[in-house]
Amino acid sequence: MSEPEPGGFRLTLLGRTVVEAGGRRVRPAPLTAAVLIRLAVAGDEAVTVDELYRDVWDPAARTVRREDRVSVQKRILELRRLLDPGRPGETSTVLSTERGRVSAYRLHLAPAQVDVLEFHDLVRRAQHTDAATAAELLARALSLWGGRPLFDAEDRAFAAEPIRRLHLWHGSARRDLVDVYADLGRPRAALDVAVPLAAERPDDAELAATVAALRGRLRARTAGLLRRDFAAPPTSVVVTSGDLFTEDDAHLVAGFTDTFDTATDGDLVINAGSVQGQLLHRLYGGDRTRLDRDLRGALHGLEPVAVEKRSAKRHGKLARYPLGTVVPLRRGGRLVFAAAYARMGNDLVARSSLPELRAALRRLWAAVETHGQRRPVALALPGTGLSRVDRPFDELFAALVDSFLDASRNGPIASQLRVVVPPADVERYPLERMAAYLHALPDRPHAVTGPADRAG
Question: In CATH terms, is domain 1-130+150-168 a member of 3.40.47.10?
Fold first, then answer.
């Protein structure tokens, strides 16, 4: 996002209205924000006082009285103080007055000063350049999209058509970025854009075919790192490099903390790049209200073991559930098992230990056996992320496989346990030691004897 020029300002309208000026970020009052949006969507056209009053205050007003015009003028004064504090009156060069039978106001904006205009400018430029430059321009344009466009005026009739057009441009930019990434030989990046778009457009057969083709290209490129098939139970353990969220044939596991926090704002409570953060943004489209509603429904009937006071835990949720609590969330024809592996400290640091992780895994496999219908289960290696289990990766892998095979001793609970490693992290994994452990297991392990501290 562009920064305001020294002495200038920057408007955010793709989401909640924000004015950045003089090193400050200000959220105008709702009516002031609505007036600002009305002037902004007018482009280079002037808007009369009467039009502003009817569009923002009272669409049914047959006449606009003097006191109504005064209400508009007060908001214009507020905007001038925000946007042009050196010239807050009629001498303003940012928000000018045009005299006539009825006074009118015109907002003078450059693309760099307002995200809506910058978004349009970047998308237009991307349509007339090479693929690599187009990818950069479209990614920048989409990064500006911070929420529902023209949020502070979305309930007013004048905003309906601009909002509709913005959504069309947004969808078109996302679709173009999918094609550009595919042309550049970047199927993973293309899928990151295409999958949520396809979820929003279930009837778009062409887009569905594009997603399938991209996944085929990615599978051809992504080699399995490690595999072991077992005869009894009839199952397999696979380690592969790829994107957990594109493993469409498998149920997923997402690690949570005992508070089931979901907020990723500023990475303060939950890191947006974690599996849990990606669950919110990729499978729920960033709709935290919906994810929280699904979690509440799945946790219904489970009693918290404690409820923190807000004075002790300043951010996030307060109710604590037993460590190892597992709830299934249904998304797009598969399940996501939300598993509380770690405890969330009041300092917002998640912590766990190997014994606690093993106990949580036992409860995870019980839930998989109940709900999973023996489909493959894909997950990141538990304990390697922000849950801070301070043990070597191969020991965590052994604990995971041990618990899975132990839970399967009376019959397979899943046809495959699939550990998905992000490509950028492969070098951190001691694959040779992991392979040595896995291939040393008997072909018919049934109940597996694990490390000495397994019972801990």
Answer: no
**DSSP string over 256-302:** EETT-----GGGSSS-TTSHHHHIIIIISTT-HHHHHHHHHHHHTTP
pLDDT score of 220: 61
Mean pLDDT, all residues of the chain: 88
Element (H, E) at 126: helix 115-126
- Spatial separation of the C-alpha atoms in residues 171 and 245, rounded to whole Å: 21
Evaluate the CA torsion angle 173, 174, 176, 180 in order and state its sign: positive
Q: Which tens digits make up the pLDDT trace of 11-38?
A: 999 999 999 887 788 999 999 999 999 9
Compute the average pLDDT of residues 62-90.
85
Helix (H) or strand (E) holding 405: helix 393-407
Token pair 């908001």 is found at 75
Is 420 within 8 Å of 379 (Cβ atoms)? yes
Give the 3-state secondary structure of residue 323: coil
Confidence of residue 205 (pLDDT cuts 50, 70, 90): very high
The b-or-e profile of 62-77 (16+ CB within 10 A means b, else e) is: eebeeebbebbeebbe
Q: Answer whether 144's CB lies under 8 Å from 94's CB.
A: no
Structural domain boundaries in the chain: 1-130+150-168, 224-256+324-440
Domains 1-130+150-168 and 224-256+324-440 share a fold: no
Residue with tokens 């057009």: 165
Q: Enter the tokens of residue 374.
A: 């023996």
pLDDT at 7: 47
> Phi/psi of residue 395, each to 5°?
-70, -40
- Judging by DSSP bridges, how do beta strands 235-241 and 334-344 pair with one another? unpaired
What is the C-alpha to C-alpha distance for residues 321 and 360, in angstroms, rounded to an integer? 12
Query: Can you list the alpha helix ranges (DSSP code H) found in 42-114?
Result: 49-52, 66-83
Q: Which two tokens stand for residue 98?
A: 């045009």
Binned at pLDDT 50, 70 and 90, residue 156 comes out as very high
CATH class of 224-256+324-440: alpha beta
Question: Cβ–Cβ contacts within 10 Å for residue 102, how many?
Answer: 12
